[in-house]
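Hi there,

I know you've been waiting on this one. I reran it after we fixed the sequence typo, so this is the corrected version. Both the input and the resulting structure follow.
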Amino acid sequence: MTEELIDAKHGLQSDLFAVLGLDQRPRVSTPLAATPANTVMPRPTEGSSRYNSLVVSVLRLDPNSPITHQYHLLSFPPKWQEALQWAWKDHDTLNQAIEVVLPDCVVVGRGLAAEEGWLLARDPVDLNAVHQVVIAWVAARNAPAERVRSTIAELDRRDLAWSPVDIREDIPFTMLRAAIQMEIAHALSRPGTSAPSTGLTFRPCLTTTGVGLLSWPPDQGPFSVRIDIAVHTRPFTKEPFVHLRFATTRWQYRAGWPTYGRVTPIAYLAPVGSPHQTSYLGRARLEKIFHAGSVTNRARWHKPVADVLARLGQLGRLLDAQDVIEHPVEHQASVAVAHTKRSIGWHPVSDGLSGGDRHHLLSWVAGQLSPRLRLVDSLPRQRLSVRRGTRQSRNGTVTPEALRATLGPRLDIELFIGSDANTEHALNRLTERLGIRQLGPGDLDTSVDLGPISVHVRRLDTSQLAELDQAANPTITLIESSWSRSSQPVRDLAISGRIARLVDATPRESAPNDHHNRARFSSAVDDLLRQLGIRPLDLPQPAALLNCNPALLSIWIARIPRKRFVPIAFLADPSGRRVQVRTPQMHWQPLHTAVLAIARQQDFPRADSALTGSFIDEVVAHAVAEYPDTLLLTHAQNLRSHWTAIQNSTLLADTVDFGTGLRPVGSLPGLRHVRVRTDERAETPQYYGINLNGIGQPTGLWSLSEPRLFGSTSNKPATHTAAVTRSSKLIPVDNREIDLRREVWNGQLVELVVASLQEDDKPAHWAALTHELRDATPFTTWTTTLPWPLNLGLEIERYLP
């Protein structure tokens, strides 16, 4: 039994033996004291306060304890597919009606004839109810009455039938994902099941990742604990991995319309009064009423779905929308409206859960789901560094020689700043970064001769913006403006030859005005210098274990409205000082001129994988010819839909495929490839570390179970200095009261896949180099989510439509 539990193939933790009563281990100190007694989580190395391993909230299916429950799939019969073809363009309304009326039927297919079917259910749902929803949806379509009648006549209830589905890895992935999610949701929401010490009971519901859970009813405050369940694969294997994300859903707690702009608030509905017996929470959307061409302050349920529900006679169970908005707390046990990042006003509960709360919940979940699903092993730390001093190289004073090499003989700086104080903030940062003499707000038009380069500084009034001519020299423009979130002015100024940044200097209640503005203007100056392609110091030479000093190549897909895009390549020399940029319509140029050229581009191609593959082939060939060693960096979520060879299902070690067929990476001398994946769509898991002092958020490089997979974590950024690890929204910690307001910060684990290497290379060395490049972005004091060469793509997108 013990040998089976520690089989590396299953990825099980010996620390979980206690779940089955095979071992008893001492508890970790105070913050972990609330861990359920029947589950023991990984413990720290004795005598050490370091974080030697990382706990990740990832589960694996145990092949020795398969899921035996048979699920049920509903597909559209061929006759229905033909009849509904004309109405299917509005299928979202049908699926949203299902979310309200039959929430335990999960939509797994978006097409009428999708291979994975349409609805998946753990237990068969009354097909009369499904038939009625489809009929009501068709009847609510804006179409000629005769067409509606003839379509409904074709939809024979007797054509519908549930098909049994066994949970195996070879079924369509959308079905497998939904079934695993529903199985977990069922196990954690059974009658009488609750999380120890908190008493929280959970109900299944739909979340952003599919089926998840919410603690219900929300009687612990204006929030619920949410468990998102995401199922993903990894490169080089077809095995599914389950990522659990523990978070909060905060509820609207005061009267008034909840969100800004056109964002539609989402409400969760208790299954009370539903004609269909279910434990699932329904989900519906609210919207403002339009009357006589204008928006009113009255609320209603999303009209297309409400029309379907009205025809079903079930609109009444949603309660009156306006009453829900005006009295959210009174109706919270039946209908709760979610508070989001686009919601209006302050909320008394901070967003997110601390590491201690997540540890408590993960321990409980692991015990409930064993033995069918088990936690993966904790990730061991990789103790190596290939580029020491990377973090120190990103700040400092730029020498005149380096400025000249990047920009030429002159740099123009334009300051459209109204107040003397804010002008002084900008000038102080320019003095610090460029090494020019101290300038004051009275220096309206000053030229500073630095020898190899001259720097010309002008302070102008914002009324002069419309009178600007085309810039004759490299120019950065800093504008004090209340519309700093808009990218259009930045693009317009780029067309006139200026790299611009808008700063909103509006005072905030949360920070002293002068301190806030100093930070914002200093950050804006740093941002402008980054976009010029300036780096204060060379990147450090790699350690001998890497055996080379590679150039850095990254590929980025910048998306543009109307399904258009532009692939952009960034190539930095080994020092990091010379950054060249290329697009399919533009030859290699320095970063500061490439930014302006991209902003001027008017015609962008539609998405085309062949075009992207050909472009990548060309830029890789150029880099390999230019430098003896090159590291290619790609971002999975950004690039994989255009370069399918880097998708999990197609990625092969030590090969490249640019659309013309596989070839060994050895045919491209010196090329290495590391693919980066971030936590978009919960594709990487939450994590925390445990040491003798309790739970924390350690930084470092960690080894995943697969030989070429690594995880990169970072320090807490300066924007979250107030966040603490040992606060709790669920249980008292260290004799402290529960604190709903305390800010928490949960970093993301960035996955690094060392996809291609040359002979004798070590995967860990190239993963470490990529990890350290997260600290290489110049003029920053924080670790970026993406390595510096990929982060250039994010920064250039502001110049696109």
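Quick highlight: The longest strand covers residues 241-251.

Best,
R. S.
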